[in-house]
Every structure is written in structure tokens, then in C-alpha cells.
Amino acid sequence: MEPRVIKTDEQYRRYLQAVEDLAADDPPADSSEGARLELLAKLVEDYEKVRYPFSQPDPVDSILFRMEQQGLRQKDIADILGGKNRASEILARKRPLTLPMIRALYEHLEIPPALLIREPRSAYGAEELPKPAELPAPLLVKRGWVDSDEAIPGLIRRLFTPAGSPIFLRHTLMFGTSARTNRLHVRLWLARVREVADSRTYLHGRFRPADLNEDLIRYVSRLSWMDKGPRLAQEFLEERGIAVVIEPHLPATHLDGAAMLGRNNAPVIGLTLREDRLDNFWFTLIHELVHAWRHLGGEQYRAIADENIDKHRSEDDKVEREANERTAEILIPRSIGKRSAAFMNPTSEAIRALAAELQVSPAIVAGRIRYERQNYALFAKLVGYRQARLAFPEVRWG
Cα 180 to the chain's mean position, in Å? Predict the structure, then answer.
């Protein structure tokens, strides 16, 4: 593979794997392989700065995050880093990692070398955090995030500095964004959703990865047929340790939902109900569950957020494309939908008949027809306008 400027996510993933493979071999810095490692790492880092504008984790963030995942304390990794004093200096960002340390961290904690060979940042300082004036303080007070404007600095420290915060996760993928998206507000919203999920201590320990599969997601979609379906879906998922947090979007964002991993490494689904339509609620919920099932965890992504989900179902990225395709198939199997009267000659009666056959909300069928025909004036009475938020009266929608 001849090193070139990275232009696609597919190319990026190949280069990232090459960096990890080379780093694991620990080549001498003055060797040809050492020079190749340095070049590939630089190309990967340059691409990440453009493609993933969220702050990337430095080596210390990566170590702290893995410690959080595995419930380790500093003393538990002291031997890996050469003793208590040296471990303390490294976690305080006063001493860089050596190649033997990187190898040991990879072997014992399975931290990818590509994360450990980055230049460490200095210790967090006030200049690295958002300024209180950059946050929509009156809105955050109104929604109950804080009691007063004076509490905003504490909120910033709480949401933006923990090692496991989405801001410092390996990758946060964003789909559907535009140049007008306020990325600070996206980061703030992601961190808030994760904080709310982590505060639900009754969920801790419930999640079993084997439970999150297509059968479970398909069952959730069938709850749309029930009265109070959105609330039932939230309760069903939380019984299985998957937090579902309803948090309205922030200004200058068009977030519909996100999937991420909480501090206990269980999935967290965040929904904004920005559109307040049942068809949008169910597509977004199932879409984020597919992300959690197929794309989060291990060495894959730690958080995936979706803006304008109604308008961006044709993303070229294979991660989003898979989520869109599987969501569509789970909600309305193509083999059934395409030969139904509802799709060939749509009427309200045909839509309700197909919904009854599939045991899903008529809003889901009507929403799919509107999307495929790119005519959002169709069947407006069937998509459940102003019904999604009614299921969550405790949410402050200000």
C-alpha cells in the first residue's frame, strides 16, 4: 500500500489498521518500517482532524477510558507503566509513553497502538474548555440542566472533562450535518444524554450484549402497534439495561438521535423528538438501535449521532447505509411492502391494512410512502403529528 492523502472513510480504516499492525511490531524509529509508521500515523491524524471534528482522545484519555470500562484504579496499572510514580506522571501528562509502555498497554488493556502514539495534550486548562458565554445558559436553566447561570461553569467541568465523555471517545461519527451545525452544542447534547443515562443507576448491570440482536429490535418495532407504544418501547429497553433518554435538541443543531456507550459500557439511545411525529420517532429509535447493535463497542465507534434523519437516508458511508437499510427492512420487509396495495396504490385504507398485517403503527407505513415518493404532503393525518412528545410529559420542551 503506497501511502497517499486519505480521502475516504474506507481508506482511513485501512490506514488505521496498518498503523496498529506496525505499532504492534515496535519497529526502530530509524528503520524504514519506523518511517512508514510515522507517515501513516500523520496521514490518519490529518484525516481525523477534518472528518471527525470532535476532540480526539490523546493517549491519556484512552488509558483513562479503558480504566473506566474495566473498573481499574491507578494502582492496578502501575506495573504496566513501570511503577506507581511513573504511572502518576503519565496520567498527569507529565511524562510521555515509551514504546515498551505502548506495547504493554496494548497487550494488557487492548488499547489500539494508533491511539497511544499520538502526542499527549497538556493537562486540561480553562482555555481548552468551552466558555460559559458560548452555552445557551437561559435555555439550559429552563430545561433544568442547571439551577442558575452561575452553575454553568460547574456544568462545563462536569460534562466536558471526564475521561469517558463523548468528547474524548475514540470516534464520534456525525451524519447529516451542515456547515451551519453548532458542533459545540452537539457535543454538549451528547454529554448531557450520557450523563442522564449514567445517573439511572437502576440500569447498571442489566445489559447483556447477547440480548441486543435483530429479534429484540424487531420486537421493539412491533410495540408501535400498541397504545402508548413509545413509552412501552422505552420501558422494554430499560428493563434490558439500554437507556433511552429523551432530550430536546439545542439551537443550531438538527439532531434527531444518537447511539453511544455509557460509562457502564451499555448502549445509550438519545432522542430529541425534534419532528414530533410518530413515523420519525420509530424510524429514529430503530435506526439508533441498529447502530448500537452493529457499530458500537469493541474497537468500533463509541458514539454515532444523526441530524436530519428524514433527509439523509442515502449517506455513502457504509455504517449509515447499513443502519438505514436494516432499519427499513425491520420496520417493513421489502418482500412484503413492495407487493402490497399500500405501496402500489396507496390509500389510507391500504396503509392501515398493511400496518395491521405487519403489526406496526400506520404512521410507519405512511412515513415510508412519503419518503419514497418524496412527497411529504401525503397522508399527513396518518404520520402522528404532535403525538410523540405526548408520551413523555415529564420532558421540558422549552
Answer: 20
* b/e 214-228 (16+ beta carbons within 10 angstroms → b): eebbeebbbbbeeee
Q: Which of 200, 212, 294, 301 is nearest to 244 (CA)?
A: 200
Residue recorded with cell 440542566: 145
The mean pLDDT value for 20-30 works out to 75
Most confident of 87-101, 164-178, 236-250, 304-318: 236-250
Higher pLDDT, 72 or 150: 150
Quote the longest CA-to-CA distance of the chain: 73
pLDDT-derived band at 124 (thresholds 50, 70, 90) equals very low
Q: 166-189, pLDDT tens digit by residue?
A: 655 545 788 888 778 888 899 899
CA 214 to CA 208: how far, in whole Å?
14
- Please determine, for residue 343, whether its predicted confidence score (pLDDT) is greater than 90: yes
Which set of grid coordinates corresponds to residue 118? Answer: 499520538
Contact 71, 205 (CB under 8 A): no
Separation between Cα atoms, residue 18 and residue 105, nearest integer Å? 18
In the sheet that 255-261 helps form, which strands lie side by side, from edge to edge? Answer: 172-175, 303-307, 255-261, 267-271, 243-246
- At 129-155, the pLDDT tens digits run 788 999 999 999 999 999 999 999 999
- Cell numbers given for 273: 423528538
Residue with cell 433544568: 144
Dihedral angle over CA of 57, 97, 114, 91, nearest 10: -20
Distance CA 212, CA 320 (A): 18
- State mean pLDDT over 333-360: 96
pTM of the model: 0.74
Comparing CA positions, the residue from 125, 132, 127, 254 lying closest to residue 183 is 254
CB 256 within 8 A of CB 308: yes
- In contact, 338 and 364? CB cutoff 8 Å: no
| Predicted local confidence at residue 114, as pLDDT | 77
SS3 29: coil
154: left (phi over 0), alpha (psi -120 to 50) or beta: alpha
Scored b (16 or more CB within 10 A) or e, 60-75 reads bbbbbbbbeeeeeeee
Cα–Cα distance, 319 to 301 (Å, whole number): 10
Reduced 3-state DSSP string for 195-213: HHHHHCHHHCCCCCHHHCC
Q: 299 is written with which cell numbers?
A: 474497537
